[in-house]
Write a structure and sequence with these properties.
The complex is a heterodimer of chains A (about 500) and B (about 675).
Chain A: H1 5-23, H2 28-51, E1 61-69, E2 74-80, H3 84-101, H4 110-129, H5 133-142, H6 144-154, H7 159-188, H8 193-198, H9 203-220, H10 229-236, H11 239-264, H12 266-292, H13 297-326, H14 332-364, H15 375-378, H16 380-393, H17 400-415, H18 417-424, H19 426-441, H20 449-452, H21 459-477, H22 480-498
Antiparallel strand pairs in A: 1-2
Chain B: H1 3-27, H2 29-55, E1 62-72, E2 75-83, H3 85-108, H4 115-134, H5 138-156, H6 163-194, H7 199-209, E3 213-214, E4 220-221, H8 222-237, H9 246-249, H10 255-264, H11 269-276, H12 278-281, H13 285-308, H14 312-332, H15 336-363, H16 381-394, H17 401-415, H18 421-447, H19 482-507, H20 524-529, H21 535-542, H22 546-564, H23 566-575, H24 577-584, H25 589-639, H26 644-665
Antiparallel strand pairs in B: 1-2, 3-4
Helix pairs in contact in B: 1-2, 1-4, 2-3, 2-4, 3-4, 3-10, 3-15, 3-19, 4-5, 5-6, 6-7, 6-8, 8-11, 8-13, 10-15, 11-14, 11-15, 13-14, 13-18, 14-15, 14-17, 14-18, 15-16, 15-17, 15-19, 16-18, 16-19, 17-18, 17-19, 18-22, 22-23, 23-24
Classes of the chains: A mainly alpha (about 500), B mainly alpha (about 675).
Chain lengths: ~500, ~675
């Protein structure tokens, strides 16, 4: 089975999605169960993936290779290393709550809704599993279509504006990346990512390629100042769309930096790292302040996502800052470890927070903070979960939110006192915007009659929030296995990131 | 020492907290409090046993990992314990006070609908506090640090329908986070030099770090920066000026947690941490001077605020701020043992005072204003007597526990030659008068004099729903049942005799051994030890000391202004109106934080959002482009019949076309 495990992970949900689509809206009961079983089966497939993953090598594992478009030497080539594997597991994990959360809630074209998410799950796993750049690009672009439909069909009142914005940003970014990939294909005659990583490039070439990657990945992360699509997309997206957007799609940007930008254009990264560090710190601080004054719960969490993703880009590019400050890469892997853990953790926590907002929205049909107040009085169990995830969002030790931020803050001190000090401002800012939200929504006397009529979590909602709470706590209390999986790949990446590729 | 037994100490309250939190509502109140009390009693027993083993059994301590939290870049971050004399003393103090508070809670929270939740929280707190004091590395220290902060947040906001409570808990969390910012930077700075998070590595590196310069702020001593950053963390947790503002407001929480968290244990975490880090602080006189000045300032100026307050809990809260200042000042004078000794005695008598205040509050049907009390001693003899014991310990009356610790601090600071020690000495000395003034004022206003509760109709509505026995109309206050008074008596005993019994060992007998490091040239306690001839002689000497004269002066002043000539107090308030305004405004710290800082943060956020995001980025860049594309989209919409399918459709077509074009021209 290991010879085609990754293919199974990709195509099982896609096949299930097509089946659900074909069954149509009339057979939605069957469609629902097929969706649930397919997502659970996909997660089950992650068990052998995790269990049989060799944690002592940085090489690609579970590799598959078949001819795809022979004329362009493009292969259907798959494989995972310590960087992509945890993200695949995260994808498989986070699709399940989306399916369960939609159970009795999505009534307009539910079959298409489930199908979109199932197909998207397969495509997203494909993005992380592809080791051929053209295949990667195929998944990368194809993944946008279901998300586009999800926001466009099941979205809120301003969904057209949001979708156009979303489309413009992400598509423009991708086009430049495609140009860079084709340029390198022309140079080396292969679309293999490994070949791109080995390809010698002059500094000028690397700068152009880096610029192309930066545009593509910065939009996805999203980094300041190309972040404004995210709050709009989140606000208009249905709950499931927000969960996937925050939990998985944002990670594509971080993954792109790790897989493409650093190993392919290391010299350019070394020259331009300061730009990324500054943009990351702006994301943490500027966006932290912006999050503070949001009136809409989803917008607030969206801005919080941008701030948290600032730690990802900071952690990734610390390697160059540490190198320039200390002359060695000692401590650089910690920054990248932190970035990776932060990606996984943010996927869990932001996903959970969007689900929490979804729980409230399903009942009150409002995302405005001002419409709530004293929810704890009528929904004590929900309040418990909301407070837990909010605290995790503030980076509380013992939850997953702490691990990545802690590692990045520790590593950044090696680079520069101010990086560390400014990044650590998130301790105050994240606490301020998150707990102020909790204060206004959850605590206090019953805010109005509609809050007074709220009913607490049902079994379905309890199940998904409870499961996510367990994972968030588990990663916070014992992150060692996650770090162990990533270890060799990160070490390898640090070597790649600082080795010059300029032809002698 | 058996590691399994050690793990059981924090785990017992954790397990109890989880049970109480998850299934407390199903298993009922009695089962909940039985389980949590059993958990805490177990860890209290084990803690005392460990202390006995280490001190009398001469068992070597324990310093080792429990499990590996993570490995990153070759650095092993572990959860582990460091058990020595300092740790075991703290463990005993924490678990003993926690046990008393658990029992007391049965009575205090009897009518509260959140009964099981409350027990879950206080057990969880005990777990967090134990993890904090037992840590052998900075990661775990920070974990415990934040864990107790969170439980404190949850408990201050325990009555979550009260706006004042949920304001206070947010404030407490944010102010603590400001301290944590310093704390984590200090940890990161240490880590950047030692590549390890263990205490051992940090302590070993201290002399070397003292020679290093960090290129920030034009070059500062690395160790000084580290120590000051760590101390900023302590300033948050131990409520030192200017990060003290959260503690008085934390009185919004139920009284048992005011005793446990905001008097005896959590707020002393900063004091403990600095003592624990004595091998670092000792090498930075600059940092210690900073500590000394901050502590002494707190001791005097926060005490003064206690004099004018009329809320019985807030007076004790200001007293806690002041006493924490004494402890911190002791640390700053390198008299770490005196700081910890005062921490220990203070934990007993301050928890006692809070619980006694709570007892009064129950009897007064959740009235906290001392102006509506008076003469309660007659009706509540046990509460009054134990409260007097606590009060006398607080003012450092000779032979009471507080005397041995507090006068030692004043003397130690007087002997210190550190920069700032003269200022600190005068602050602490005047603080003795202030302490005496607010303590006796509290005792007189509450337990003696006119029975003012007869005049006021109970016009308030107590806890707004929580006060199930909210009595209206006047009926005489009664002494509380045994679950309330027993913890009072249990805490009164150490307030009476603990100092007498332990001063010789803890303060002058090198009790802490290697757990606390003091350089010989800073060791003021060793100099004081020459004059020590037993606790009895020391107690007698107290009657002739300057601080005692100040205590008597405070007593007389309080008696005059409260009992003999109450009208003098009003006259003074009129005459010194400007001073009273400053004090009523609590030196304008809250005003500054709320009117300047909080407003500024919201203004900055709003400005960045409206001008930066919506104006510049969206307005100028994105929507300009979007309008162009929107026009094109409009054309497409006219061609196609659907709305959104058309977009998706065109993406796919366009993508394929672009892809083909690129590929063919490649």
């Amino acid at each position: 089975m290991h010879d085609y495990l990754l293919s199974l992970l990709i195509w099982l949900p896609i096949a299930a999605g097509i089946v659900v689509l074909l069954l149509g809206e009339r057979n939605i009961v069957a469609g629902r169960w097929i969706s649930l079983i397919a997502t659970l089966a996909t997660l089950a497939l992650c068990v052998p993936l995790w269990r049989d993953f060799n944690t002592h090598t940085a090489a690609y594992q579970f590799v598959e290779k078949a001819a795809w478009i022979p004329r362009f030497h493009a292969y259907y080539a798959l494989g995972v290393d310590g960087i992509s594997m945890p993200l695949i597991v995260l994808t498989a994990l986070m699709t399940i709550p989306v399916v369960i959360a939609a159970w009795n809630v999505i009534n307009a074209r539910p079959a298409q809704y489930y199908a979109s998410f199932l197909i998207m799950e397969g495509l997203m796993i494909g993005v992380f599993a592809a080791t051929d750049a053209l295949l990667f690009y195929f998944f990368w672009e194809a993944m946008l279509i279901p998300m586009f439909l999800i926001i466009g069909i099941w979205g809120g009142p301003r969904r057209v504006y949001a979708t156009i914005k979303f489309f413009l940003y992400t598509f423009l970014g991708s086009v430049f990346m495609l140009a860079a990939l084709i340029y390198m294909y022309v140079k080396c005659g292969s679309y293999s990512i490994a070949a791109f990583q080995a390809l010698p490039l002059t500094l000028t070439e690397q700068r152009w390629i880096f610029a192309a990657f930066l545009i593509a990945f910065a939009v996805k992360v999203p980094m300041w100042p190309v972040h404004t699509w995210l709050p709009d997309a989140h606000v208009e997206a249905p709950t499931g769309g927000s969960v996937i957007l925050a939990a998985i799609m944002l990670k594509m940007g971080g993954y792109g930096f790790l897989r493409f930008a650093l190993p392919i254009a290391p010299d350019a990264c070394r020259h331009l790292y300061f730009l990324i560090v500054v943009l990351s710190l702006i994301a943490v601080i500027y966006i932290g302040f912006v999050a503070l004054v949001q009136q809409d719960m989803k917008k607030l969490i969206a801005y919080s996502s941008i701030a948290h993703m600032g730690f990802v880009t900071l952690g990734i590019f610390l390697v160059y800052a540490i190198l320039s400050n200390t002359g060695s890469t000692h401590g650089a892997a910690m920054g990248m470890d932190g970035a990776m853990v932060q990606m996984v953790s943010h996927g869990l926590i932001s996903g959970a927070l969007f689900l929490c907002v979804g729980v409230l929205y399903d009942r009150m049909h409002s995302r405005q903070i001002a419409d709530y107040g004293g929810v704890v009085n009528t929904m004590p169990v929900f309040a418990g979960f909301m407070v837990l995830f909010a605290l995790a969002n503030t980076g509380l030790p013992g939850t997953s939110g702490f691990v990545g931020e802690f590692l990045v803050i520790l590593a950044s001190f090696k680079a520069n006192f101010w990086y560390s000090a400014l990044a650590a401002l998130t301790l105050i800012l994240a606490a301020a915007y998150t707990l102020w939200l909790v204060k206004r929504v959850v605590f206090g006397p019953v805010g109005n009659d509609r809050v007074a009529k709220l009913t607490d979590l049902n079994g379905r909602e309890f199940l998904i929030l409870g499961a996510l709470a367990v994972v968030v706590l588990l990663v916070g209390i014992w992150p060692a296995p996650l770090l162990k999986v990533m270890g060799p790949s990160i070490q390898h990446l640090v070597h790649q990131a600082v080795a010059t590729k300029i032809p002698a | 020492m058996n590691p399994q037994l050690l793990i059981a100490i924090p785990l017992a309250p954790l397990v109890a907290a989880v049970i109480a939190g998850l299934v407390g509502r199903y298993i009922g109140r009695a089962a909940t409090h039985t389980i949590t009390i059993a958990g805490v009693a177990l860890s209290c027993g084990l803690s005392l046993y460990m202390q006995w083993l280490i001190y009398w059994g001469h068992v070597p301590g324990f310093d080792g990992p429990v499990y590996t939290w993570l490995v990153s870049d070759g650095v092993h971050m572990q959860v582990g314990f460091l058990i020595d004399r300092l740790t075991t003393l703290m463990m005993s103090v924490v678990t003993f006070v926690s046990l008393c508070v658990h029992v007391y809670t049965i009575g205090y929270m009897r009518d509260d609908p959140g009964y099981t939740r409350f027990f879950s929280y206080i057990s969880l707190f005990t777990f967090g506090m134990l993890m904090l004091v037992m840590a052998n590395n900075f990661m775990q220290l920070f974990f415990g640090w934040e864990a107790v902060g969170v439980v404190s947040y949850l408990l201050i906001g325990f009555w979550y329908t009260r706006p004042s409570a949920i304001f206070a808990n947010l404030k407490a969390f944010l102010v603590n986070r400001v301290g944590d910012l310093g704390f984590i930077i200090g940890i990161a700075a240490l880590f950047s030099y030692t590549h390890s998070l263990s205490y051992q590595a940090a302590f070993a590196a201290a002399p070397h770090l003292a020679q290093q310069t960090l290129p920030v702020f034009g070059g500062v001593n690395a160790l000084t920066l580290i120590c000051i950053c760590l101390f900023i963390g302590a300033m948050g947790k131990s409520a030192q000026v200017p990060l003290h503002v959260w503690l008085p407001d934390s009185m919004e929480g139920p009284t048992p947690i005011s005793a446990l968290i905001h008097a005896a244990t959590m707020v002393t975490a900063g004091v403990f941490m600095v003592a624990r880090m004595s091998p670092l602080f000792e090498y930075s006189s600059t940092a210690l001077s900073f500590v000394l000045v901050i502590g002494a300032t707190n001791a005097l100026f926060m005490g003064i605020l206690g004099v004018i307050n009329n809320d019985i809990k807030r007076v004790i809260a200001y007293s806690t701020l002041s006493q924490l200042g004494y402890m911190v000042a002791a640390l700053g004078a390198s008299a770490y043992a005196a700081g910890i000794f005062h921490l220990m005695t203070h934990a007993g008598f301050k928890a006692l005072l809070f619980l006694a205040a709570g007892s009064v509050i129950i009897a007064m049907h959740h009235e906290q204003d001392m102006r509506k009390m008076g003469g309660l001693g007659k009706y509540m003899p046990i509460t009054a007597a134990t409260c007097w014991v606590g009060g006398l310990a607080l003012v450092a009356f000779p032979f009471f526990s507080g005397y041995y610790s507090k006068d030692a601090i004043i003397e130690a600071v007087g002997l210190s030659h550190r920069w700032g020690s003269t200022y600190a000495y005068w602050c602490l000395l005047l603080g003795a008068y202030v302490t005496s003034l607010y303590t006796f004022r509290l005792l007189f206003m509450t337990f003696h004099g006119e029975e003012r509760f007869r005049h006021v109709r109970a016009e308030h509505d107590g806890h707004g729903g929580h006060d199930a026995h909210g009595g209206h109309g006047v009926h005489e206050p009664r002494e509380n049942p045994l679950v309330v008074t027993l913890p009072l008596i249990a805490l009164a005993i150490p307030s009476l005799i603990l100092g007498y019994l332990t001063v010789g060992k803890v303060l002058y007998g090198n009790y802490f051994g290697s757990a606390i490091m003091v350089l010989p040239q800073h060791n003021v306690l060793a100099r004081m030890a020459h004059d020590y001839h037993g606790p009895f002689e020391l107690g007698l000497r107290g009657f002739l000391s300057v601080p005692f004269a100040l205590v008597v002066a405070g007593l007389v002043t309080a008696w005059l202004f409260v009992l003999k000539r109450p009208q003098w107090a009003d006259a003074a308030a009129v005459k010194f109106a400007w001073l009273k305004r400053i004090l009523d405004q609590k030196y304008y710290f809250d005003w500054f934080n709320e009117q300047v800082l909080a407003r500024l943060a919201r203004g900055v956020g709003f400005g960045l959002w409206k001008v930066g995001d919506q104006g510049l980025i969206d307005g100028a860049l994105v929507n300009g482009t979007a309008k162009t594309v929107g026009g094109v989209g409009g054309v497409v919409r006219r061609v196609q019949s659907g709305y959104l399918y058309s977009y998706a459709f065109w993406i796919v077509i366009g993508l394929a076309a672009l892809l083909g074009w690129f590929l063919l021209h490649a």
